[in-house]
Structure formats: C-alpha cells, structure tokens
Design brief:
Layout: H1 35-38, H2 44-75, H3 81-96, H4 99-128, H5 132-155, H6 157-160, H7 166-193, H8 197-218, H9 234-250, H10 257-279, H11 296-310, H12 316-324, H13 328-335, H14 337-349, H15 355-378, H16 386-415, H17 421-453, H18 457-483, H19 487-491
Length: about 500
C-alpha cells in the first residue's frame, strides 16, 4: 500500500478516488490510544460534549415515553399520543441530514451551540406546554436539536480528537444509546411517580445549557469541514424526509390494508432516495457510497440493521408483564437487558487492535443479535416462571452484545472511508442519519409485527422477535460484504 505523508488531520493513506476499492476496515490504522488518554484533561471536555449530546438524544426519547401518560392526564390531547414520538423522530431525521451543512456554516463549537440551543428551547416549551398541541411543537424543536446532536457526535470526532482515539470515542458515543435506553425510562418513571413530569423537561433544559456553554470552550471553532460551505441536497433531503415521515405515520395508522399501504409507500420512497442520490450533484451521503465496489454502503446497511435490532426492546417490558406477570419495574429492567449487553460489550470490543479481529467482530455482531432474538422468540411461553425470565434476560444480553461489539468499528470504518476532510465529515454524519432512519423504519416494522401476531400476546412476542431477528440475519450478509478483502489484497 502506498505511504503518503499526511497533512494535518488526514489519514495516512490515499483517498478513495485514488486507490482501488477496498473495505475501510482493511486499512492500516494508527496505534490506538488508551481510555486514559481519551479521558485525560486535554480530551475529556470534547469527549464529554460528543457523548453527552448523543446521550441527551437517547435519554429524551425514553424519558418522554415514560412521562406521556402523566402529561396527557393533565393537559389532555390523548388523540395525539402517538404523534409525540412521530414529531420528534421526523424532525431529528431532517436535521441529521444538515449536520455537514451546519459544520460548514458555523464550525464545530457553534454548530453544537446551535444544537444544544434548539434542544433546550424545545425542552422549555415542553415544560411550559398548557395543551398537547404546543407539546408537539416543543417535541419538533427538540427533534431538530437532537438530530444535530446525534449527527455531530460522529462527525466531529475527526476534528476534535486525534485519530488514534477514534475507535474508543466511537465506542463511547455508541454506548450512550444503550445508556439512554437504561437511564431514560428510570428517570421518566421517577418524575412521573412524583407527579412532576414537567420537571424532567426542566432538567433536560438545564443540562442543555451547561453542555452548550462547555462546547464553546471544548471544541474547535474552525474545522476542516468549515473551509467550504456545502450545498444543501434539497431533492435527497425532501425524499428521505418523506420516507421517514411515511414510516412514522405507518406506526399510528389503523391496522390492516392501510398499514401495508403505508409500509409500501415508505419503502418506495427509500428506493427513490437512492435513485436521487446517485444522480444528484449534492448528496446526503458521500458520493462514493454508491460506487460499484465501494464497501461504505455495506457498512451503512450493517449499521442500520443492527440499529433495527435494538428497537425490539421497546415491547419487551410489555411481554414480560403479560407473559410472566412481572411488576412494571422488573419488566423495565428486563427491557433494558439488551442495552446493558450493548454497552458492556463495547468495553471489550474497542480494545481490539488487529484488522482481522475487527473484521471478525463486525461479522459476529449481527449473528449474535440474530441468535439472541431467535432464542428469545423460541423461549416465549405463557405463565413463564423465574427460570424462563432469566433465560430471556440472558439471550437478550447476548443480542445486545452483538450490537456493541460491532458498532464502534463500523462507525470508524465510515470515518476512515476517505482522507478528504469534507467527505469524511459527511461519511461520519451519515452514521447517525442511517441510525435515525433505521429507528423510524424498524419502529414501524415492530408495530406491524406485534399487531400481526395478535390478538394473543404470545403470538405477538414470537412474531416480533423472529421478524427483527431476520433483519439481523440480513445484517450478517451485509457485514460479510463490508469486511470482504479484495482478492488481490489477500494474495499480497
């Protein structure tokens, strides 16, 4: 492999356009740094901002879900219950596609200040909302800020931290999704328990103010991505927004024919997005994503299908209560088991150094997720005993571990897919866009599977778990393609 002397902030290998296509995970990386270096005084403030922004997004999703029953009891608007999540998710997908534009226009520190500002304003609106309609407005504003925070977390790693720390930083950021899934329901439940649902939004607003102020000092004001102002990919953004909205709306449509019409329309819009991206001058994802022989598209697909697997845990507490008679608190802990596995496994995975080890865990991740979900489906019974509940927790932990061992290396593979700073920022921001789109898609699919498996809860649990497990199997195939080393490289 040719060795070029890299410029500051660049990766010591030629850009994709100047070399034969090969999987990003096969490229030589610098000697990895340690957790101690990442959490040192020099790097801790930046790491805190990157991880904290993603954590706020993830926690907010589950806090709000836990608070909604209390909120609707006070301000009414129960008919808009499902739209609270839809407004937030659709807005976050839109803003995640503008991350590269925000970096180009404002630089890292001011882009984060904008994101935390929007999130804080939305939280304050929610805390003050006298009616559900205003709460929906606040959720949309929160979503715009949250989508930026989720995307900036990956995109700014390249500028804020040395490349030897990218894998650990990506692991830390990825772990925040699992942490949010664990902390969010507990925090929301506590505020709801004491009849203080508005206080949860005030707390989020306060944290947003603190992190926003810290971002100004912790992050660079001028980044490589800010050297030019990228064009807004309006056609791609419009089609992908419609696709995300279609999936979100499908989750609240009446069952039967309308559900299938909604899913079919959303899938067609996703296909149209790819067609538009391939022909557009300005794109959401890096242009080389769509080139024949480039593995970045397989990296993104694997990330998306792993993210889809995590959405299965949304119904685990319900199944635990209905099939095993668990108390709500215990059912909540059972639902968090997948996230615990996700978070814990990354502590091991980010320490891997050899390229072969990284390729193995990328491929093993979707396989473990599929195995865990299929096992969970097979173990579903009515009137489940204590031993069965422990078995559920064990296989869900294994499934979550599959996400955790693969996710940070896939994220870094996207970041290392090019030496060009602007394209690199776009590729990194694409990780979040793919993840958020996957959440919209999989939440609709999970809802359809649960409905189709009814009316008995047992059938819903089995069909949902097996269906999402099948998606994880597709992720296994994508992971194999993402890590395939070209034959000429194997011969060398």
């Amino acid at each position: 492999m040719p060795q070029n002397t890299p410029k500051t902030g660049q990766i010591p290998y030629p850009p994709v356009s100047a070399q034969r296509p090969q999987p990003p995970t096969a490229r030589r990386e610098p000697t990895p740094g340690s957790w101690g270096e990442l959490l040192s005084p020099d790097n801790l403030p930046a790491a805190l901002i990157l991880a904290g922004g993603v954590a706020m997004y993830a926690i907010n999703v589950y806090v709000t879900a836990a608070l909604l029953p209390s909120a609707t009891a006070e301000i009414g608007g129960g008919q808009y219950y499902a739209w609270v999540a839809t407004a937030f998710l659709t807005a976050s997908v839109i803003s995640s596609m503008l991350v590269n534009r925000a970096l180009g226009r404002f630089g890292a520190s001011r882009a984060y200040l904008l994101a935390f500002g929007l999130f804080t304003i939305g939280s304050i609106v929610n805390a003050l909302a006298p009616v559900m309609e205003l709460l929906l407005v606040g959720r949309a504003v929160q979503g715009f800020g949250g989508g930026l925070l989720a995307g900036l977390g990956y995109a700014v790693i390249r500028q804020a931290l040395p490349d030897r720390l990218w894998t650990r930083a990506a692991g830390l950021i990825s772990a925040m999704w699992g942490v949010g899934n664990m902390v969010g329901p507990t925090l929301g439940g506590l505020f709801a328990q004491f009849g203080a649902w508005r206080g949860a939004f005030w707390l989020l607003a306060l944290i947003g103010v603190v992190l926003g102020a810290l971002s100004v000092r912790a992050l660079p004001g001028h980044t490589a991505a800010a050297e030019h102002l990228p064009r807004i990919p309006v056609p791609s953004l419009l089609v992908l927004t419609l696709a995300a909205a279609a999936f979100s709306v499908t989750a609240v449509l009446p069952g039967g024919l309308w559900t299938w019409v909604g899913l079919a329309s959303a899938v067609l819009l996703l296909v149209l997005f790819v067609v538009v991206e391939r022909r557009a001058r300005s794109t959401v994802l890096p242009r080389f994503t769509y080139r024949s022989g480039n593995s970045l598209k397989w990296v993104y697909l694997t990330l998306g299908l792993l993210s889809a697997g995590a959405m299965a845990e949304a119904f685990v507490p319900l199944f635990g209560q209905e099939l095993a008679g668990l108390a709500p608190l215990l059912a909540g802990f059972l639902g968090a088991t997948l996230s615990v596995g996700w978070t814990a496994s990354q502590l091991f995975s980010v320490n891997l150094e050899s390229e072969r080890s990284k390729r193995i865990v990328i491929v093993l991740g979707p396989a473990l997720l599929a195995a865990g979900l299929f096992a969970y489906a097979a173990l579903q019974v009515t009137e489940a005993g204590v031993g069965t509940v422990w078995a559920w927790a064990a296989v869900l932990f294994v499934g979550g571990a599959g996400i955790g061992i693969a996710f940070p290396h896939l994220s870094v593979a996207a970041m290392r897919s090019t030496a060009d700073p602007a394209d690199g920022a776009k590729a990194a921001a694409g990780v979040s866009t793919v993840q958020l789109i996957s959440n919209a898609v999989s939440s609709a699919v999970v809802g359809v599977l649960v409905s189709a498996g009814g009316p008995a809860v047992l059938g819903s649990a089995q069909l949902m778990s097996a269906g999402i497990g099948t998606l994880a199997l597709l992720g296994f195939g994508c992971a194999v393609a993402a890590t395939r080393v070209p034959r000429r490289d194997r011969a060398a």
